[in-house]
Amino acid sequence: MRMFQKPNTTGRPVIEIKWGSIDLVLEGAALLVLIVAAAMLLYEYPSLPDQIPTHFNAEGVADDYGSKSSLFAFLGFPVGMYLLLTLFNKNPSNFNYPLKITEYNAPYQYRLSMRLLRWIKLAMVINFVWMLYSAIQVAKSGGDRLSPAFVVVFLASVFVPIVVYFYLANHQPKSTS
């Protein structure tokens, strides 16, 4: 049994799912975004004012301010999310599925659900790093708002992969080799 893998209590097949090239790209992209974000924060940190926006409301307007050191929490959140979603993705036989998992459909359904988590992980990392970048830009410019597109892009980047997942999960190809 792999490290961190919970015992399967669902009665579903436990199989190893090999990563495809898209999986490597999604994982690598999410990790690269985090590395670039950390470098950006370290580079920009000395030039930031002591007080910066730390929270934005649904309209993208800054409604709370705090110390510039709070930007490290902005970075900590996507790092934590990256680690948790990576950990959760280790055991697809224990995920919830919209249909019954069998020996026949398990490889396809597991791969699909693991890929969904990778897409969501990348989307969340990008969105929270975009929020970090925006907070830095707002602090440097003296402005008080995020881009109006932020909320729309944030929601679409999370919900579009979920909708695509449900479609694909319920339209499994005949051959899943």
Fraction of residues in helix:
55-70%
Shape: elongated
Largest sheet: 2 strands, antiparallel
- For the biggest β-sheet, the strand order reads 1-2
Strand content: 5-15%
The count of β-strands is 2
Distance between the termini: 24 Å
Q: Given the structure, what is the number of helices?
A: 4
- Taking all residues together, what is the mean pLDDT? 88
* Poorly predicted ranges: none
The domain count comes to 1
Structural class: mainly alpha
Element pattern in H and E? HEEHHH
Radius of gyration: 19 Å
Outline the secondary-structure elements:
Blueprint: H1 21-44, E1 51-56, E2 62-67, H2 71-88, H3 106-141, H4 149-169
Antiparallel strand pairs: 1-2
Helix pairs in contact: 1-2, 1-3, 2-3, 3-4
Give an account of the 3D structure.
By secondary structure, the chain is mainly alpha-helical. It has one domain (21-169). The chain is 56% helix and 7% strand. The chain has 4 helices and 2 strands. The protein has helices at residues 21-44, 71-88, 106-141, 149-169, and strands at residues 51-56, 62-67. Strands 1-2 form a two-stranded antiparallel sheet. Strand 1 and strand 2 form a beta hairpin. Helix 1 (21-44) packs parallel to helix 3. The mean pLDDT is 88.
Summed up:
With 177 residues, this protein is mainly alpha-helical. The chain is built from four helices and two strands. The protein has a two-stranded antiparallel ribbon with strand order 1-2.
Main features:
single chain, 177 residues, two-stranded antiparallel ribbon, elongated
